[in-house]
Amino acid sequence: MTALPSRSTSLVFRPEAEPAGDILVVVMLRGGMDGLHTVPPHGDGQLPALRPTLSQGGASPARAGGMIDLDGFYGLHPDLAPLERLYRDRTLAVVHACGSPDRSMSHFEAAKTIERGVSDGNSVGSGWLSRHLISHRTGSTSPLRGVSLSQVLPYVLTGAPNSIALPSASRFRFEPPPRWEPAFTRSLQALYAVHDDDASRAGRASFRLLRDLQKLSLGGSRASTNADYPEGALGRNLRDLAQLIRAEVGLEVAVVESGGWDTHLAQAPQLSVLMTALGRSLTAFVADLGEWMQRVTVVAMSEFGRRACENSARGTDHGWATALFLLGGSIRGGRVYGRWPGLGREQLDATGNLPVTTDYRHVLAEIVERRLKNRHLDQVFPRFTPQFLDVTT
Amino acid sequence: MRQITRRQFHHVLTGALGAASFAGCDGMWRLSGPTVSKRRLSSTDIAENDPVWRVLNRLSYGPRPGDVECVREMGPEALIDEQLAPQLIDEAPALESRLARLETLNLDPETARERELDWALGNPVYLAAQKLLQLPGSPVPDEPAATATELQQACLLRAVYSRRQLNEIMVQFWSDHFNVYPRKGDCLWLKTIDDRQLRQHAMGKFRDLLRASATSPAMLLYLDNSENVRRMGDAGPNENYARELLELHTLGVSAGYTLKDVQEVARALTGWSLQSATELHPGEFVFRSDRHDDGQKVVLGRILPAGQGQADGEQILDLLSKHPSTAEFISRKLCRRFVADTPPERLVARVAQAFRESDGDMRAVLSTMFHSREFLHGENQKFKRPLEFLVSSLRILDAETTGSGLLPYLESMGHRPFNYPGPDGVPDRAESWLHTLKPRWSFAADLLDSRVPETTVPHAALLDSPEGQSPAEICRQLSRLVLGRALPDEQLRTLAQLSTPSAPLDAAPEWLALCIAGPQFQWQ
């Protein structure tokens, strides 16, 4: 592995028991991202018939529109053009027709299933990232082993040890009027020290977090490189995350949210905005981290894909299989993985959905074992026998 | 920035002292306007499971000064009955004059809808969509951002000042239940209309609420039913609204319906749309028979014969609002809102029974819940969500506000009104909000340090008779006012150290901020 920039601070947590692996970043594309639109299988001749209006202007090679050919069969939507270079560099891979066994087509049920890493989201309460942090005993006492750049911890981190939701890492400060200090904060801390109700416990955790983040002095001396993050929450959160990674705070897993992929209506213009933001944000993140990308793996995934045929509002309804993006120095990129099921009537399922040919857990399990160095896959993905696709080195 | 000097403080204090003897509660819970209450403050602690404390915290956005005494006198059950009949309660003039200043709130529907459509057609995403859908064009005005903000302000003002407190809580409940995200691109104005509809039926029949939502232009746009068209070639109906109608608005996800049911509901609702900019009443609900799938449908085993037109959808709404799963789903959600995150099963069953027997009449349903032993006497606690936290602090401190300065604080806590993107609405369990303590502390400090724009707290007037009292004694009174019961002596002694012997009252803002920011005040 390349020599990494190293820096000693009081918040570096040295592994004791098991080796710490890569840092895993999961980008949740909420709402059901359309894999047939983002990574169109232009080699499958059925697509234009299923999507007479949507496959124009980019998704169909016949109509050109600037679609980027990846391998003669799959393409990349032109609004994701920034990702092309990463694909050619073999840093980016796609797994297509990927998904979970959940077929409820409900956002909430599907998200529960995919974030809990099981076949049925109601069978367990913890997330697969939580179980990874629990079972992977690195001996780390970092309060930031798991971080979600959001208001609330998502299902995937429910019950995770040493994990927090951090809406904005660089703005998490408490500054009462100076003339009240330090007595005011001390008194408030005293009020929260007495009882053991949920509020008191959450308050004590918030005070710990304030203390820990203060030590990091985020946003001050550690200015980002000139990575060109686009406007918007996704770019902002990835920028915050890159800062946390470079600050060596003991971060092991992170979740970043990207909403709005639920395109029932006028899909093309809506996805155009989202894909542009996604492509530019990920590219900026990679540029920002530089050599650090050798130790970082990014997975961008969605709770489900969308119906193969378009609906009457030039949108698509909830479907099943979709594409999953993998990014990182240890990803065997420049390839689209997975078996293509085909878009013919016989090949789609009874609802007209693209069937899942690769359970997403095969991909995640490989990353957990090979990149995160966790040997307890049976605990992370219980009652599941993973088959690695060799997406990682 | 406005600071109260010690001299001013004493001045106001002396006035309050005189006013305090005008105690009174004439059987009606007369919620005061924004002026300082003239009622006697409680001099004894109230237990957190005392029914008086319970009703004040759950049927309202929290007590105002003097309310505990008042409800002790009239009895908690009388308060329940009063609040269940909002039409008999005169609204506070102070609220009405404040609302009257919000221009977009009071636009007539026609104008509002026209502005909505004008703006929608100028929105970039919508513009692209318009090109695709060949929608008619029109001039492009600026985004009417004031609409969204004024509705949010109105929500806060009503929560703080309305005398029909339970009605306001129910409006919020339905607004979450039938959530619309006005910034999805094209329904900023229409949410204001939607709000009026929910407001009209908030304490009425569930069937009326459901229809109000199903025909609400904001909802038709938000969940895409406006573009739900019968199958043409490979393109099938849009299932978005149909699915959430079953999953989130009525039956609940575990009620046992199938994808086929969702698709049949979507077919039944094809053609439920709104009028475009070129039609007679732009933005108003319209049934488009040319878009409607007129074949036979089977929903949850019920056959809807071919050729019924709009009646298909009406029958779906009948079927769903009478379905036992809906009674249970709504009742459980109400019990979660008003009783506990995990409400007692027996209570849910009784409330659901009241729902079925009253045909979904909210007054009967709520009455059953509020008069229950589990509600009045249970040990259940609810963690305040940010809106409840913030409003309850303004109420107990008798604050004066226009509402607009408060919105950034709610945003920092993730609970700006009408700003939640998902159709599942703002969550209602403690676990979703426990992380918001830090921004609550910041708010409490800013509020009592007079740093919240357009918002003032008459700190001094809140005290009964501070002259000659020890800091610990003053602190005891303030904590009893805010928390219902005084902080324990040990904590009072600690807090008393914040003051100086020569000017004990100077620390009052800090003490109040600590009470508001502390763990106890986070519970309802």
In short:
The complex is a heterodimer of chains A (393) and B (524). With 393 residues, chain A is α/β, with parallel strands linked by helices.
Would you mind describing this structure in some detail?
The complex is a heterodimer of chains A (393) and B (524). Chain A has 393 residues and is α/β, with parallel strands linked by helices. Chain A is 29% helix and 13% strand. Chain A has helices spanning 35-38, 47-50, 82-88, 107-116, 128-135, 183-192, 198-216, 233-246, 267-289, 360-371, 377-380; strands spanning 23-29, 68-69, 75-76, 92-99, 146-149, 163-165, 253-258, 296-302, 322-328, 336-337, 358-359. In chain A, helix 8 runs parallel beside helix 9. Chain A is globular, with a radius of gyration of 22 Å. Mean pLDDT of chain A is 88; it is low at 1-15 and 57-64. With 524 residues, chain B is mainly alpha-helical. Helices cover 50% and strands 3% of the residues of chain B. Chain B contains 25 helices and 6 strands. The longest helix of chain B is centred in the first third of the chain and has 17 residues, at 145-161. The two termini of chain B are 32 Å apart. Mean pLDDT of chain B is 85; it is low at 1-27, 31-38 and 124-143. The chains are: A alpha/beta (393), B mainly alpha (524). The interface between A and B is large, with 63 and 60 residues.
Q: Which runs of chain B of at least 5 residues are low in confidence (pLDDT < 50)?
A: 1-27, 31-38, 124-143
Largest interface comes to:
A-B, 63 and 60 residues
Classify the beta-strand content of chain A into a percent band: 5-15%
How are the strands ordered across the major sheet of chain B? Answer: 1-2
Characterize the quaternary organization of these chains.
heterodimer
Structural class of chain A: alpha/beta
* Overall average pLDDT of chain A: 88
The number of helices of chain B is 25
Q: Using only CA atoms, what is the Rg of chain A?
A: 22 Å
Number of separate strands of chain B: 6
Distance between the termini of chain B: 32 Å
Average predicted local confidence, pLDDT of chain B: 85
**What gyration radius of chain B follows from the Cα positions, in whole Å?**
25 Å
How does the helix and strand content of chain B classify structurally?
mainly alpha
